[in-house]
Amino acid sequence: MLILNFEKFPVLETERLVLRAISIDDVDEMFQQRSNPEVMKYIVRPILQSRREAEELVRNYEFLFEQGISITWAMSLKGENKMLGTVGYPRINKENYRGEIGYSLDPVHWNKGYMNEAIREVIKFGFEELRLNSIEAIIQPENKASSELVLKHGFIREAYIREHSYFNDKFQDVEIYSLLSPR
Ligand SMILES: CC(C)(COP(=O)(O)OP(=O)(O)OC[C@H]1O[C@@H](n2cnc3c(N)ncnc32)[C@H](O)[C@@H]1OP(=O)(O)O)[C@@H](O)C(=O)NCCC(=O)NCCS
What we know:
This protein is α+β, with helices and mostly antiparallel strands. It has one domain (12-180): Aminopeptidase. The chain has five helices and eight strands, in the order E-E-H-H-H-E-E-E-H-E-H-E-E. A hairpin with a 7-residue loop joins strand 3 (71-77) and strand 4 (85-93). 29% of the residues are buried. Coenzyme A binds next to strand 5, helix 4 and helix 5.
């Protein structure tokens, strides 16, 4: 079984970004991003209503890492601390060495290639350090930015599940994309 026990949070670097632990200093950005309907349009999580909810979310990310349950990074530009977005494996199925990748970015920074850079490193980390065997992405069919992103990284669309999730008072279809370890 996969074990997630790092002595300290693994900081990753890309050409322009640092991927680091989410901390209480990120509450304002977390609130700003997760209360933005544009960001949350295809994310099956409740839109945040208050700064206090953002603080709970940040604490939860810390807890999930400390308990070895899952890992999510904050993305910052090199030389700056401000959190531009998040990326990680919010759900890890340890018995099956399978991680679900998730990501979101402040719309001010969309289409600059940042998530492309970030997930390249997160996928590498997933296979090489976490020892995942497969990574899945669960994407709403209309979320082309997200499906195009994972396709660029070699994911394959494996399923279209009708009425997979009940959210915002309706049943929503999803597509499942996945990538197998190159091992
Ligand atoms: C999905 C998201 C993270 C993409 O981030 P991004 O940094 O803008 O993506 P990048 O600039 O790195 O683009 C990488 C690739 O994704 C695809 N892409 C990104 N935005 C796109 C869009 N609006 N339409 C189609 N393809 C798009 C392209 O293939 C692009 O490669 P290219 O620039 O060489 O054509 C961003 O749109 C976002 O935060 N969306 C809201 C949150 C969300 O929906 N998360 C996913 C839930 S499943």
